[in-house]
Amino acid sequence: MNTIRHNIGKLSTLAIAVAMVSGCTSMAPNSDSLVRSESSIKQAKEVGAIEHAPVELKQAESKLQKAQDAFNKEDYKTSLEFALEAEASADLAEVTARNKKTQLALDEVQKSIQTLKQQLSNR
Amino acid sequence: MNYFTKKLFIPSASAAMIVLSGCSSTAVNNELVSSAEQHFNQTAGPNSVREYAPLKYEQAKESLQKLKSAAESDADESRLEHLAYMSRKHSEIALQQAKLKKAEKSIQQAEVNRKDLLLALKSEDLEQTKQRADQLASEKQQAQSQLEQMKAKNNQMAQLLNELKAKETERGLVLTLDSILFELNKATLKSGSERSVDKLAEFLKSYPDRNLLVEGFTDSTGEESYNQQLSRDRAEAIQSELIAKGVSPERIEIKGYGEQFPVATNETRAGRQMNRRVEVIVANKGDDLIERRR
């Protein structure tokens, strides 16, 4: 019993050491994070990120690609990290696009206010 | 992680050495943390971010804290790089979110301002339209009252002409003043004839651009030369009456015809009364007066 436990202990120590070197921890394959970052990117595109936040959007897409590649290599820890980074980048792309659009709308309203003020003062 | 490192230190020192060399490099880690913190302060730091995007601000703060904790517990460099990336992104998200909320609020206020201005413009338009409508209404009323006045004047004239027994002839408008009567052998008006002269004067004042000829006639009793003079005197009597009532003297010509052109028989008293008369011819506008032909 003891010998068996000792052997298992030895084996597990080796396995753990190998795991640590490759990525510090081992994980079960889970593609939820990939799906989440994909949907964040989609949402960012829907609010106009292609036009209004292209840099942030490209970064999100490149992170998603890396997450996908790591997932395919069964490096799930790295895949998760890239997926989280892709999601954060997509969220930033979305809010940046929303902000740009809102600023443009604000400019329009303010322009129209200027015009109206001029009309009033010209009377 | 802690569990693994503890276990590793006891049974296998070589494994522990490998883990340590892969997971920590203090100088680099400090650099990662301080740079992320600086970035957090620059982006999510301003009070407006806390005010306009409190949730995203908290997220950014937590994200930075996670990085700090990981660095303190000597997490490996790639883990720290990941957390630093997340921290930067969350800080920027907080900043952008705050800007977005601020802009949305500004738009709401601007929309209110715009509506106020539109309302002000509309009410001014309305005021102008109302003023214009009032002006038009008053102009219309003026025109209507002018029209009424003209109608009334025309009616008055028609009535007057009717009373004066006006007849359109080629010589002009002939008014036979048979109600203007003279005393026998005299050029003085019989009492009660003044009203007719008044009406005539009124009519002439309404047509200031027309000249007139006053013709006097007598009956056949008496000398012809005497009657000639008498008829002229009678015409003159009307002329002076008209002048007295404000008709300009140069508009009035007079003519005496004596017993010529009787309008009734001189055999009866009534006929002779009708022949002792004055006729007034009002020239058509712009025309000279045509004298009576024998």
Q: How many β-strand runs of chain B?
A: 5
Q: Helical content of chain A, roughly?
A: over 70%
CATH superfamily of the largest domain in chain B: OmpA-like domain
In this structure, how is the largest beta sheet of chain B organized?
5 strands, mixed
Separation, N- and C-terminal Cα atoms of chain B = 150 Å
Query: Strand tally of chain A, please?
Result: 0
CATH topology of the largest domain in chain B: 60s Ribosomal Protein L30, Chain: A
Number of domains of chain A: 2
> Of all protein chain pairs, which has the greatest interface, and how many residues does each chain bring to it?
A-B, 35 and 38 residues
Number of helices of chain A: 5
Judged by helices, strands and strand pairing, the structural class of chain B is: alpha+beta
Unreliably modeled segments of chain A: 1-5, 11-24
The percent range for strand residues of chain B is 5-15%
User: Average pLDDT value of chain A?
Assistant: 83
Encode the helix/strand succession of chain A as letters.
Answer: HHHHH
